[in-house]
Write a structure and sequence with these properties.
The protein has 4 helices and 12 strands; from the N terminus they run H-E-E-E-E-H-E-E-E-H-E-E-E-E-E-H. The chain has a 9-stranded mixed beta sheet, with helices on both faces. Strands 7-6-9 form a 3-stranded mixed beta sheet, with no helix packed on it. It starts with a helix and ends in a 7-residue tail after the last helix.
Length: 210
């Protein structure tokens, strides 16, 4: 049985380590904030200018002025701090963020990622993804294994404009988890969702992996 969105986010949360500074991308990655293990203390960073993000608020606790980069309402912590874009991207570009969890439209077998645009479709902008994949120490992609038309998203080469080249360290889909030890190594299948077989994952993947 494939993982749902929350289960994928919970699996990504298992990769968090005590003391990490973490950036969560738009979509499924934002759910990681709800699954941080009780014995792990991390600081969440949002590139729109906030360090120290609390859990999603209940409806009667929402503050319309308090949002993350995906424009979702969030909560603050006693330790939260606020700053401008220059400081936010100095943190990212300066290598001060330990891990980012991002969504993707495609990931290639060599670690390339495409997640910012589909040619011909209107977009609001590239956001912070290009800075994140260039400046953050570890890149985890959380995405559906296949697109809505059934085509694989973990593929030999990206067909969409790249966000970054050879940057992805781990891929978590609704079917499986792939990891590579370094950027010179191939991806390895390390985990399957419950009742998903390696044959099923292989049938829906065109990328090469171990």
């Amino acid at each position: 049985m494939p993982w749902d969105r929350n289960q994928m986010a919970a699996r990504a949360a298992r990769e968090l380590q005590d003391g990490y500074y973490v950036n969560l991308g738009i979509g499924i990655p934002t759910l990681v904030a709800n699954h941080i293990p009780d014995d792990v203390e991390v600081t969440l960073q949002s590139e729109n200018g906030m360090l120290g993000i609390g859990p999603f608020p209940f409806e009667d606790e929402m503050d319309a002025d308090l949002i993350n980069a995906g424009k979702q309402t969030i909560s603050e912590l006693p330790s939260s701090s606020y700053f401008g874009s220059a400081d936010s991207f100095a943190m990212i570009r300066g290598g001060h963020i330990d891990l980012t969890v991002l969504g993707a439209m495609e990931v290639a077998q060599n670690g390339d990622i495409a997640n910012w645009m589909i040619p011909g479709k209107m977009i609001k902008g590239m956001g912070g993804a290009m800075d994140l994949v260039a400046g953050v120490k570890k890149i985890i992609v959380v995405m559906d294994h296949c697109a809505k038309d059934g085509s694989p998203k973990f593929i030999p080469e990206c067909t969409l404009p790249l966000t970054g080249a050879n940057v992805v360290d781990m891929i978590i889909t609704d079917l499986a988890v792939f990891h590579r030890a370094d950027h010179d190594s191939p991806f390895k299948l390390i985990e399957l969702a419950p009742d998903v077989t390696s044959e099923e994952a292989a049938a829906k993947t065109t990328a090469s992996y171990i």
